[in-house]
Amino acid sequence: MDGRFGWALVVVLGATGMTGCATAPPAPQLDWPGFIATFEGERTSQLADYGTQDTVVVTYKDPKSGPISAKRWFAAWCASQKGEAVALDASNARAPIARALYWGLSLKLNAERASGRQYTQSETMGCMRTSEPKDLMYGMFFQAVIPPRVGGPWPPQHRYAFYTAEQAQAFEVAQQAISREQGAALRQSVNDRAERQTAATRALRQNPRVGDRTLVGVIVEVKLPLVLIQYDELYRKLGNRPQTEWVNVDTISAPVD
């Protein structure tokens, strides 16, 4: 290892790397696959659903110097390809391919958060063409690895995913399709739940019985068209309601799972 990244690899490689920063820019003949190969680490499928097979998990001693050195190395390689490296965000990812990568990753990360995955710091770098058309040529996404909750101590790691322009565009198309499917499934789920609640409420109002649950409490007495509701403690506090109250049966609603 030549120490270009300024990190020391442990665990993944089972060896100790040299530390320090790059002393010379990469040669222009170092192509994209060659650049990816300089990231010594574990080739992994952990980011296979990120639209590229070029993914690497790198382990290093310093959780701050690793990504910083990686960004510097990416910028130096990008300059050797007559490009300019930028950190992509909503304000500058305006060219079509850069926008595709940024929004594709945004959709993916948002979906992960919605599914309950713990937040972890991430960043996207783009190698932008400086001549017309000024757009993304290559992209690099990296994300901190959340260690397991047991065992340890765990060395800091980052996952890296690398994109060509074609992969960036295909990734956004795939994420847009997934987002539409998930949106349609969510709408269907909401509609199904609403229909179940409507049916359950109709049945509850037609035949209320002591012990039946409503949205806000339990029926403890029935004298149609009134029912006595014993309110749940939370509803009493939020609505400033009494412990029990007579209400018209046509105003109660059934809960639904």
Summarize the structure in words.
The protein is of the alpha+beta class and 257 residues long. The protein has 2 domains: 32-183, no CATH class; 207-251, no CATH class. Helices cover 35% and strands 21% of the residues. The chain has helices at 32-37, 65-80, 96-114, 165-206, 233-239; strands at 42-43, 55-59, 83-87, 122-129, 136-144, 157-164, 217-223, 226-231, 244-248. The strands form 2 sheets. It has a 6-stranded antiparallel beta sheet with strand order 1-2-6-5-4-3, with helices on both faces. The chain has a 3-stranded antiparallel beta sheet with strand order 7-8-9.
Throw out a few tags for this protein.
disordered N terminus; elongated; six-stranded antiparallel sheet; 257 residues; 2 domains; alpha+beta; 5 helices
Mean pLDDT: 84
Specify the overall morphology: elongated
Distance between the termini: 57 Å
Largest sheet: 6 strands, antiparallel
- Poorly predicted runs are 1-23
Tally of separate helices = 5
Number of domains: 2
Work out the number of β strands: 9
Radius of gyration: 28 Å
